[in-house]
Amino acid sequence: MRYFSSSLFLLCLFSQASFAQDVAAGKNAFQECVACHSIKPGENLLGPSLAGVYGRQAGTVEGFRYSSALKKSGITWDESSLDQYIANPQALVPGSRMPYSGMADEAERKNLIAYLKTLN
Ligand code: HEC
Question: Which key words tag this protein in UniProt (predicted)?
Fold first, then answer.
């Protein structure tokens, strides 16, 4: 029992540490987005604020003029939709106006999404 609980403890420590690493790497990857996206609520630049983006309905930040393609997409931003949009915005939402050609590296996208989740 003693052995069991201490290894469980180590496992927790380990998964927390690797989560923190993902988030740190994701914050780095976010450098590709900062020119156009603020993480401050309500601060829209060339792109809408990404504060609280995880779990949000696409095209709903107040005061930002979205393309009608994104507004009508019916997407909720979750792991799968964010991954597809960041990999290739035009493929997921044809007619979307995000001038970004896409992030090819899957591991990098995963880390970036881990970081975006912390903005809620
Ligand atoms: C050159 C500017 C630019 C860059 C770089 C950029 N974006 Fe965007 N982004 C936009 C614009 C503009 C829109 C709105 C698109 C539309 O209305 O179709 C947008 C929309 C989005 C949305 C949808 C938000 C919502 O409220 O529905 C997400 C998510 C997003 N971007 C994530 C990212 C991420 C993550 C990166 C970095 C990998 C990134 N963007 C890089 C300009 C940019």
Answer: Electron transport, Heme, Iron, Metal-binding, Signal, Transport
Task: Give the pLDDT band (50/70/90) at residue 2.
Answer: low
CA–centroid distance, residue 48 to ligand 1 (Å)? 7
The answer to whether the predicted template modeling score (pTM) of the entire model surpasses 0.85 is: yes
Contact 70 CB / ligand 1 (< 6 Å): yes
Which residue do the tokens 């493929």 mark?
91
Enter the DSSP assignment of 56: P
Cβ of 97 below 6 Å from ligand 1? yes
Closest CA to 53 of 75, 21, 27: 75
Go through 35-59 and write b for each residue having 16 or more CB atoms within 10 A of its CB, e for each that does not. Answer: eebbbeeeebeebbbbbebbebebb
The number of the ligand 1 atom at minimal distance from the alpha carbon of 66 is: 17
Fold of 2-117: Cytochrome Bc1 Complex; Chain D, domain 2 (1.10.760)
